[in-house]
Amino acid sequence: MRKLIFILALQLIYSFAFAGETKKIITGLTLDKAIEIALKENSQAKIAQYEIEKSEAKLTESYSSLIPSLSGEGSYIRNIKKPVFFLPDFFGGTGQVRPIEIGSKNSYSAQLKVGVPIFVGQAYTGIVMSKLGLDLSRLSYEETLAQIRLNTTKAFLDVLLSKEAEKFIRESYENALRNLENARKLNAAGLLSDFDYLSAQVEVEKIKPNVLQAEYTYQTALNFLKALLNLSSEDSIEVIGDFQSFMINKNVPQLDNFSVYNTFTLKKLSLQKQLADKNIMLQKWGHFPSLIAFGNYQIQTQAEDYKFNSYRWVKSAAVGLSLNIPIFSGFGVTSKVEQAEIQSKQLEETMNYTKKQLEIAISNTRNKMQTSLEKIEAQKLNKEKARRSYQIAELRFAEGMSTQLEISNANLNLLSAELGYYQALYEYLVAQAELEFYLNKSNN
Question: Are strands 25-29 and 236-239 parallel, antiparallel or unpaired?
């Protein structure tokens, strides 16, 4: 009894805890709508946007190194023992030095400082590098959006494919059930052997696990799409669309020798190479002098008491130039320049290697599109023949003119042809989406 009360209490707490949560229901979800939601809700896009904002702040920081600086400071000193300086005992004739106290017990000072950079080479190079960093962040953001589009497209197509697969497997299961009923009737009439009747039963039981697996695959594809849309597994989505609607313009684009340079990967590497080259210059500035103008204004006073109104404040001001000339830094600057040059060479090699890999990947993807188009036409004819073959086999079996093996094979061939056709459509559309991503055309 206590256990039952405990379970009921937990259920009550659970219902109260989740009472405020509303289950989201999205109906009529098209591919365009799915991409729109993913771009708006996906966390990766938000993270990439924050990176742009951080780079903009970094650029502002770089500009600040060329803007005059202004600072103020103040101090108060309480002399427990006053400072002294020493003078010879001119009048005592002792030959000793005598300590003379200076200052007062209380010392106050305030200072205003101004610094104006006149020539600081690192600052100019730093600004250029910050601009390149901002360009890199923006490009990474565009790549993130394109990647979200690609992932959402592939997930959406996965849902459509698994949905079609489930439908065809169910049809195959229904065909087997109908065949089993015909087999039962023929067996009862003595027109079909017990072996063939048993084979029909086995065929039904053999397909049943495939139905369950197809349902699981479909739900898994749905959940993956939900995750990209920032939905929970408890939310409901209704995906609409079919492969045929995406096959209006079936073509394989022509590629030129410059297509690879439009990829996000090479564009990012190019910006990184420019940053590395600027970093070489930044480190070389360590060999050059810098010149800064400065000025300060100071007021100060000293007193034995705290009668502020009677204090006498002394004012002073100065301006000048500060020239810093590097002479020797233990080969530190030279080492930094060498490291920057090596990094630039590494990026150059990385670009060359990546370019070759991308050329192969783009070519393979285009070839996959071409092959998929040919498979679509072949599978379309195969599907039509397989359906006609099954209809004939079903009619022959109902009339007792064929065996259970013949109709079972016809049913299997029909399922394979249907799945093969839609698999070819799926492969073409996925390859098309991947090629658009490579060529940076998904934003157009």
Answer: parallel
Q: Is residue 16 part of a domain?
A: no
Model-level pTM? 0.78
* Confidence (pLDDT) at 92: 62
- For the record, the structure tokens of 91 come out as 């009048």
**Residue 308 resides in a domain:** no
Query: Is residue 309 domain-resident?
Result: no
Q: How far lies 374's CA from each of 367, 381, 424, in Å?
A: 11, 11, 9
Q: Cα separations (Å) of 150 from 139, 166, 388, 428, 435?
A: 16, 24, 38, 14, 10
Domain contains 183: yes
Average pLDDT for residues 190-196, to the nearest whole number?
81
CATH number at residue 246: 1.20.1600.10
User: Distance (Å, rounded) from C-alpha 51 to C-alpha 47?
Assistant: 6
Give the chain's domain count. Answer: 1
Distance (Å, rounded) from C-alpha 64 to C-alpha 134? 16
65-69, 199-203, 255-259, 435-439 — which is least confidently predicted? Answer: 255-259
- Tell me how crowded residue 119 is: count the other CB atoms within 10 A of its CB: 12
